[in-house]
């Protein structure tokens, strides 16, 4: 055997290497643990690094048996922006928002106290923070309302409505309506304590790359929303701001949902506000300035279920004029009585006499509307290749995740197209321009798309 030569000499000079003869030479060398080193609850020896980091609290306790860790002693990270004290003896910022810190607390010594953990969201009404009930240790969401009379009064109405819904209309928490746990005043701010929920449906659409959900999953969500809206309808309440952001999953592991944010809700006899509903989900009667009823929530529901299926909003108006233009382009003109009653009709439509002397209306051109309102209206972006709702839904791609295999079989395609035919009919009942003919939640719940009955053709609504 040759032992001389450059490679052999190099091997002899290289320290730290040894010849591998069999598997025994591949076994690791495990150094014995130094004497006196602590072990954790799993029986593993702790390195000095771990004793001074992840196990620091135990290390302190060994050094001082009197030591007890309290999260309230942690540094307080500010959660509110801007955070400069301006109003309310320095407790509020310039926007009258309460300046919130991590590990600060909300509540009173006599009542419930809530330890602030993190911020969940911010809006015109105020802020929502994740908190822990210091008595029960339950983690909740707390809405901290701005220190302004208008927001305070509106939020007190929200408390009244939720107490009615939770205690009388849905005492067993069966109808997908947000639960209010507590309410109190903290340094002039009304605070509402809610159950903690998960992501909203807009975030779900976004996580799915705006490709839309299956008809089956849309049906599951629609059935729950109709259940909630039935309870509201029977209580003669209107949500007034139904949209994907106000529908939350209970958890990421289940399609169970809850309707939230009753801050704009009202009783059918108290429809005093005219500027309601988020624009994409705003009903024709509200756009035209007509009196409105709970039917406006059903219009919003129609917009939501189509958006869940397509992944994109059906009427993404850039202004009220653009909104009504999109609706008219897809669904046609509103009924004559709505145009004649509407306080805002003349903003968007011109009236003229036809050849028989009858009064008619036509939508103003973009140039005319811009000139009259001193704006620069732009044609809205077109998200869809087709113009009618049936064509848009039928031509949406059948994604692999909408069928059981990577390529849908002809049987699955036929089944999907039958589901879509039923879905189109369901949506058209919700998106009826005439609120007097638009389906109520009780009627819509009987549609084959919701019940799962075989689709045989246009559904005749049953009077309620």
UniProtKB/TrEMBL annotation:
<keyword id="KW-0963">Cytoplasm</keyword>
<dbReference type="GO" id="GO:0005634">
    <property type="term" value="C:nucleus"/>
</dbReference>
<dbReference type="GO" id="GO:0004713">
    <property type="term" value="F:protein tyrosine kinase activity"/>
</dbReference>
<dbReference type="InterPro" id="IPR011009">
    <property type="entry name" value="Kinase-like_dom_sf"/>
</dbReference>
<keyword id="KW-0597">Phosphoprotein</keyword>
<keyword id="KW-0808">Transferase</keyword>
<dbReference type="InterPro" id="IPR050494">
    <property type="entry name" value="Ser_Thr_dual-spec_kinase"/>
</dbReference>
<protein>
    <submittedName>
        <fullName>Kinase-like protein</fullName>
    </submittedName>
</protein>
<feature type="binding site">
    <location>
        <position position="143"/>
    </location>
    <ligand>
        <name>ATP</name>
    </ligand>
</feature>
<dbReference type="GO" id="GO:0005524">
    <property type="term" value="F:ATP binding"/>
</dbReference>
<dbReference type="InterPro" id="IPR008271">
    <property type="entry name" value="Ser/Thr_kinase_AS"/>
</dbReference>
<feature type="region of interest" description="Disordered">
    <location>
        <begin position="1"/>
        <end position="43"/>
    </location>
</feature>
<keyword id="KW-0547">Nucleotide-binding</keyword>
<dbReference type="InterPro" id="IPR000719">
    <property type="entry name" value="Prot_kinase_dom"/>
</dbReference>
<keyword id="KW-0418">Kinase</keyword>
<dbReference type="GO" id="GO:0004674">
    <property type="term" value="F:protein serine/threonine kinase activity"/>
</dbReference>
<dbReference type="InterPro" id="IPR017441">
    <property type="entry name" value="Protein_kinase_ATP_BS"/>
</dbReference>
<dbReference type="GO" id="GO:0005737">
    <property type="term" value="C:cytoplasm"/>
</dbReference>
<dbReference type="Pfam" id="PF00069">
    <property type="entry name" value="Pkinase"/>
</dbReference>
<comment type="similarity">
    <text>Belongs to the protein kinase superfamily. CMGC Ser/Thr protein kinase family. MNB/DYRK subfamily.</text>
</comment>
<keyword id="KW-0723">Serine/threonine-protein kinase</keyword>
<keyword id="KW-0067">ATP-binding</keyword>
<feature type="domain" description="Protein kinase">
    <location>
        <begin position="114"/>
        <end position="450"/>
    </location>
</feature>
């Amino acid at each position: 055997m040759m032992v001389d030569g450059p490679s052999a000499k190099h091997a002899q000079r290289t320290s730290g290497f040894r010849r591998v003869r069999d598997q025994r030479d591949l076994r690791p060398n495990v150094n014995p643990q130094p004497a006196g080193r602590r072990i954790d609850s799993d029986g593993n020896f702790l390195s000095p690094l771990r004793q001074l980091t992840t196990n620091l609290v135990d290390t302190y306790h060994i050094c001082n048996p009197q030591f007890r860790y309290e999260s309230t002693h942690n540094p307080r990270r500010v959660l509110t922006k801007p955070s400069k004290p301006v109003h309310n003896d320095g407790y509020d910022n310039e926007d009258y928002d309460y300046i919130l810190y991590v590990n600060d607390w909300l509540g009173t010594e006599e009542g419930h106290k809530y330890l602030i953990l993190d911020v969940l969201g911010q809006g015109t009404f105020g802020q929502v923070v994740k908190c822990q009930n210091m008595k029960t240790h339950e983690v909740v969401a707390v809405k901290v309302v701005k220190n302004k009379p208008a927001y305070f009064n509106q939020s007190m109405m929200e408390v009244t409505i939720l107490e009615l819904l939770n205690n009388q209309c849905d005492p067993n928490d069966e109808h997908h309506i947000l639960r209010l746990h507590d309410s109190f005043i903290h340094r002039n701010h009304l605070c509402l304590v809610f159950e903690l929920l998960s992501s909203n449906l807009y975030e779900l659409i976004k996580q799915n790359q705006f490709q839309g959900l299956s008809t089956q999953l849309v049906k599951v969500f629609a059935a729950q929303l109709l259940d909630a809206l039935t309870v509201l309808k029977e209580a003669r309440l209107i949500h007034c701001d139904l949209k994907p952001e106000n529908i939350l999953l209970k958890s990421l592991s289940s399609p169970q949902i809850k309707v939230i944010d009753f801050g704009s809700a009202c009783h059918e006899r108290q429809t005093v506000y005219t500027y309601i509903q988020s624009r994409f989900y705003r009903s024709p009667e509200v756009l035209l300035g007509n009196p409105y009823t709970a039917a406006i929530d059903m219009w919003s529901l129609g917009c939501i279920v189509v958006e869940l299926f397509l992944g994109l909003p059906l009427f993404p108006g850039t202004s009220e004029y653009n909104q009504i233009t999109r609706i008219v382009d897809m669904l046609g003109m509103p009924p004559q009585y709505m145009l004649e009653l509407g306080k805002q009709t003349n903003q968007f439509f011109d009236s003229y006499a036809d050849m028989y002397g009858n009064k008619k209306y036509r939508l103003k051109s973009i140039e005319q509307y811009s000139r009259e309102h001193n704006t620069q209206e732009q044609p809205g972006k077109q998200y869809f290749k087709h113009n009618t709702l049936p064509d848009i839904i039928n031509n949406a791609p059948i994604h692999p995740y909408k069928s059981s295999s990577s390529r849908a079989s002809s049987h699955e395609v036929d089944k999907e197209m039958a589901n879509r035919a039923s879905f189109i009919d369901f949506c058209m009942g919700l998106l009826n321009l005439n609120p007097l003919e638009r389906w109520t939640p009780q009627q819509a719940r009987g549609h084959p798309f919701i019940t799962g009955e075989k689709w045989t053709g246009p559904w005749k609504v049953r009077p309620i």
